[in-house]
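User: Modeling request: complex.
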Amino acid sequence: MILKFCEWLAETPWSIALHESRYGYTTVESVHVWALCSFLSMAVLLDLRLLGVTLRSVPVTTVIRRLLPWSKAGFAVMVVSGAMLFFAIPVRTYHSIFFRSKLVLLVLAGLNVWWFHSRTEPGAAAWDLSPNIPRRARLAGAVSLALWAAIVVAGRMIAYNWFDCDRPQSAIVNWAESCETENSER
Amino acid sequence: MSLLPLFQWCEDSRVGEAIRTSKWLFPGIESIHLLGLVVIAAAVLVVDMRLFGVGLREHPVARLARDMQPWLVGSLCVMLLTGFLLFLSESIKCYYSFAFWIKMTSLALAIIFTFTIRRRVVFSDEGAVSPGWSKVVAVTSVVLWAGVGWGGRWIGFS
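Assistant: Request completed. Predicted assembly structure:
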C-alpha cells in the first residue's frame, strides 16, 4: 500500500518537476545540508556538554534553554527539506535500504530524546554545574551522538545505488528492500 | 600559469587512484567529511550566535571561544584532510567545476577571516568591541562558512 502511494506520488506533476528541475532539487539538497549544520550542531553541543567534554562552565539547563530552540527550528527545516527530497524520488527511496535504516535510526533517536527530556532533564538543575554528571545523562549524550552519526551516514548513502532493486541483489537485500523479484507476486 | 598539470598529477596519484577505484573509500571518506562538518558547524555557529547576541548570551564570548577552539581546529583538520583525499580522487572534475572554485575561494577567505579578524574580536575584552561590529563579524563568518558548505554540496552535482 505504501508502495502504491509512492508510485502515485512519483506521477504527480510536482514530484516530476522537482526531480527534473535543474536547480530545484539541488537547492533543496543544499538547504538540507545547511539545516543539518544548524540543527545537528546545536544538538551535538548539548550531547558533548552532557558528556562533560566541553562548555563545562555553562549550566546544562542553560545549554538546553538557549540552544535547543535553534535546534528545533533547524530540525523543522530538516524535516521539510527531507520530505521534499523524498517527494522528488519516492519509489527508489522507498525501497532504499539506507533510507529504511535511516527511518529506524530516527525513531530510536526520537526515543532517546523523549527519554532524556521526560526522565533525565527534570532533575538537571541538581547537577547543572557539577563535574559529576549522572551516568544516564552521559549515556543519553553518547547514544545521541552515535545515532545521529549513523543517521547522517545513512542519509548520505541513499545517493549510492549499490543496493538498488534494479540490480541483482541477494535474497536478504531483496527482502529488506521489498524489491519485486521475478518469483515474487505483487 | 595553468594549474591543470598540478591537478592532473593529483588525479594520477596513487592515493587518488585507490580512492577512485574502491567502492567504499569515497563514500567512507565523504561520511567522515560530513560528520566533521557537523562539529565545525557547532564550533563556529555557537560563537557567532553569541557574537550576534543570541544563544548562550550569559556566557562571556572569549570563554566560549576558548571552549570551542580545540573543536574548531580539530574538526578543521579533519575536514581539510578528508577534503583533500576526496579532491585527489577527482581532481580534474574539480578543476572544471565552478562550485569547486567557489568553495576554495570561500574556504580561504573563511579561514583567514576566522583566524585573524574574528579571532581578535572573540578574544578581546568584554565590551571592547561594539555590538554592531560584533554582529558584522558574526554575519560575515556565517556567510563565508555557508558558502563553503554550499560549494561543497554543489561539486557533487556538476
